[in-house]
Amino acid sequence: MSRLLKAELNRWFSRRLWWAMLLGAVAMALLVLLGSSQAYQPQTPAQIAQAERDYAEAQQQAEQEVKNCIDAGQPVEDCAWMPQRSDFVAEPPTYAMLVGTGAQSATLIGALAALVVAASFMGAEFKSGSLATWLTYVPRRVQVFASKAVVVVLGSALLSVLVQGLTQVGMLIYAWSWLGTAGLHGAGDEWGIVGRGLVVTAASGLLGYCLATLFGSTIAPLATLLGVTVAQWMAGIITLLVGVAPWLLQVMPDNNLYAFTNGHFETTYLERGRSGEEVERLVQIGLGQASLYLGCLLTIAVASALWSFTRREVR
């Protein structure tokens, strides 16, 4: 088994696509950091002073408009709109916010990159015919499948570590520059997002490998991802036409993925009550439920790919 792992590791790191996707993921992470610097950079004292003046002027104007609205005979509740200070003076970001934002972005980037690399890793062997040659030398298909799967998980995890590490180093520099050392606290829960992001990226690579194995094609994982996206889009349209079903929200793959990555997911929907009034309902997905759901899907994918790999004729 160790020789198989060594051979597969050499194949993984010798592929140009791996290095191309790694560089692409790093470039995307740098763009995320650049965007974060524009979106979360605190206002300077001069900008805050100007924002306070703008807020005061907006208050005066709004008070005059409210008076004119009431004088015109409009109901008070329709006239009582006032600007909020937060619309003008932005609160500085917290370290927890920066860690969480960076972790979510890095998870998305790493998962997509790992899916593509893993799919190509296996799909190229079917396309070139090298897999049939490899199996003549090593006919133990279960071990071959397992060695490739282990390498895919390790390679995807390494990709995630690099992207997450780069992103979090950048966020740490921002936080230290904007908030000082006293502001580098309170991100305990958000570091959980970073850890679960590593799991998501490794699982994404394994899923790409299994789908490519199952269908014998590099494009199959991407087509499956597109199909799931379209199916969820169609389900959204159906819910708009016939009403929201709570169970449908709980079985959506993206909702469960969000719940796993962030630790929870919740949303509200309107339900018509017995007397005809609309009642707001809450749907929640916890970390345990999401873990079980996604774990079952991944187990089915692995089992199906293994069954196909051991049964099908490889040419």
Indicate the proportion of strand residues. 5-15%
Which regions have little confidence, pLDDT < 50, spanning 5+ residues?
none
Helix count?
A: 12
Computed CA radius of gyration, to the nearest angstrom: 26 Å
What is the CA–CA distance across the termini?
A: 23 Å
Verbal overview:
The protein is mainly α and 315 residues long. The chain has two domains: 2-42 and 92-311, no CATH class; 47-87. It is 77% helix and 6% strand. The protein is built from twelve helices and two strands; from the N terminus they run αααααααααααββα. It has helices spanning 2-14, 16-40, 45-71, 76-79, 95-128, 130-137, 141-179, 188-215, 219-242, 246-251, 253-262, 287-311; strands at residues 264-272, 278-286. Strands 1-2 form a two-stranded antiparallel ribbon. α5 (95-128) runs parallel beside α8, α8 packs across α9 and α8 (188-215) packs parallel to α12 (287-311). The chain is globular, with a radius of gyration of 26 Å.
Summarize the structure.
The chain is mainly alpha-helical and 315 residues long.
Please outline the helices and strands.
Layout: H1 2-14, H2 16-40, H3 45-71, H4 76-79, H5 95-128, H6 130-137, H7 141-179, H8 188-215, H9 219-242, H10 246-251, H11 253-262, E1 264-272, E2 278-286, H12 287-311
Antiparallel strand pairs: 1-2
List keywords for this structure.
mainly alpha; 315 residues
